[in-house]
Design brief:
about 475 residues; alpha+beta; six-stranded antiparallel beta sheet; 13 helices; 15 strands; about 30% helix; about 15% strand; globular
Length: about 475
């Protein structure tokens, strides 16, 4: 009887312990660290990249942190050195302190917990971006001088304004539109900003950066330095014997750009701000080491899993095509940004000097419109071929693994899903990022739409609905009627 009673008590204790363990958040420490890093990076870039005030940053940039953000605009568990352009957030019960510092040509770089201002000199830095002195006098799209435009007779100014009002005057206050641009037939026909923003304001692109990454990678594929259907040209971690037999050696660049590497997921299934790229984005971990340290769980190319690290796999493949780090770091500016007038775009790195081209880019609305215009024109810019039409066709082609989702993803660009093709032109495609960053390209109407946002909460701004609203301004062209 005593033995049975003891066994019963043990099983009851085991059951109770299991219930408690189920509720225990083993990732809480990481979440606090990453939360501190998010606040540090967004505040640092808000102050020193976007030139915003602390009141504005707390009201908008940090809004999506909700009640988890530390302090207020005028005080809190954070420290700012405006001279060094450095900010540290957290410490004590709020989790490890994480700092970020603005670096020339890059934007704010996150530092690892324990690093101090004394470590700033070790961080990467680029030469200042050379913005042409006559940019304001140079006509759009190469420059920022906007010539008076007469709307096409098939466009209604009144309905275009109604579409703009639809984008800005949201019933859901969590949808915060800060900029809207419409480019038609190459001309900037509509440009609007929320209070506190203008054409110079650079904000975080979030995952719209992935489409910039794909563009840069496309330049190297066009040159023959990379191949879409060859295995990714690097080794994997951990570095074990007989690595030649590692099945990850079969993952191709195409599969990484199609978000179907088959590798273990670290940025989805509720782990976005606890593991994976969150540590590189917000806590100073190496993006290159972490993204190569995942095991294969599916046949590459067979399952769609949206992972920041799949982008960074492709970006690391890009890096391997350069002989020196200096050549790699100079490439985005010389090969793309300067050529198409994206002079206000900063591409961030981790503290090791590797581009975080899955998210860490700061740009203004006009520069993103230029990116869209390059793709609208099939890679032609001012009469010069910058990117091949074959590459544009690739990024617009549905990834095989996206079939179950409605064929809504291509090569790091989003496509019109099957269930929306009766509402908007099926040839449209877009770059998209968290908090409402959209660059919509509609070849059938010679149209580019840029919407910048600082959405928070559940968000839910629908970019295809925005395209539909803008298209209401288009009357049928009699010349194109049967």
């Amino acid at each position: 009887m005593h033995s049975l009673l003891s066994l019963f008590c043990f099983l009851l204790l085991l059951k109770t312990s299991a219930a408690v363990a189920t509720d225990f958040d083993y990732d809480e420490a990481d979440r606090k660290m990453i939360r501190n890093g998010v606040q540090a990076v967004l505040t640092c870039n808000g102050l020193f990249t976007s030139k915003r005030t602390m009141d504005q940053i707390y009201a908008q940039e940090l809004a999506f942190l909700g009640d988890t953000k530390l302090g207020y605009a005028n005080s809190g568990n954070y420290r700012i050195d405006a001279t060094r352009q450095w900010i540290e957030v957290g410490g004590g019960e709020d989790g490890p302190a994480v700092s970020a510092v603005f670096r020339q040509g890059i934007g704010c770089v996150v530092m690892a917990p324990g690093m101090t201002m004394g470590d700033i000199s070790e961080l990467p830095e680029l030469a200042p971006i050379q913005v042409p002195a006559n940019l304001d006098a140079t006509p759009w799209p190469q420059g920022d001088f906007i010539q008076p435009v007469t709307l096409s007779p098939h466009l209604s100014a009144q309905k275009l304004k109604a579409a703009s009002d639809w984008a800005f005057d949201r019933e859901n206050t969590e949808q915060d539109t800060v900029a809207l641009l419409v480019v038609h037939e190459g001309q900037l026909i509509h440009e609007r900003y929320a209070p506190g923003f203008d054409r110079h304001t650079r904000t975080r692109t979030w995952s719209t950066a992935k489409s910039i990454a794909a563009t840069l990678i496309g330049l190297r594929v066009d040159s023959g330095a990379l191949a879409l259907d060859q295995p990714l040209p690097f080794g994997w971690l951990p570095d074990v014997a007989a690595w030649e037999g590692d099945p990850r050696q079969n993952i191709t660049l195409r599969q990484a750009l199609n978000m179907s590497s088959g590798l273990y997921p670290v940025d989805s299934f509720g782990m976005e701000y606890a593991t994976g790229s969150g540590r590189a984005y917000w806590a100073g971990a190496s993006s290159v080491d972490e993204m190569r340290n995942r095991g294969l769980i599916r046949e590459p190319g067979t399952f769609f899993d949206y992972e920041n690290y799949d982008t960074l796999l492709a970006v690391y493949a890009l890096k391997t095509t350069f002989e020196t780090d200096a050549d790699y770091l100079a490439f985005p500016q010389t090969a793309l940004l300067q050529r198409i007038g994206m002079h206000h775009t900063l591409i961030g790195t981790d503290r090791f000097g590797d581009f975080i081209l899955s998210s860490q880019v700061y740009s203004n609305a006009r520069d993103l419109a230029r990116l869209g215009l390059l793709h609208l024109r099939n890679g032609i810019w001012m009469g010069e071929t910058v990117l091949s039409k074959e590459w544009i066709d690739f990024v617009r082609s549905p990834a095989p693994a996206s079939a179950d989702r409605g064929h809504d993803y291509g090569g790091h660009w989003w496509l019109v899903p099957d269930d929306r093709k009766l509402e908007v032109p099926e040839v449209a495609f877009m770059a998209a990022g968290n908090r409402g960053q959209y660059v919509i390209v509609d070849p059938s109407h010679d149209l580019v739409i840029v919407r910048r946002g600082l959405d928070y909460g559940k968000q839910g701004f629908d970019p295809w609905n925005l395209l539909a609203e803008v298209l209401k301004a288009f009357a049928p062209d009699p010349a194109k009627q049967p």
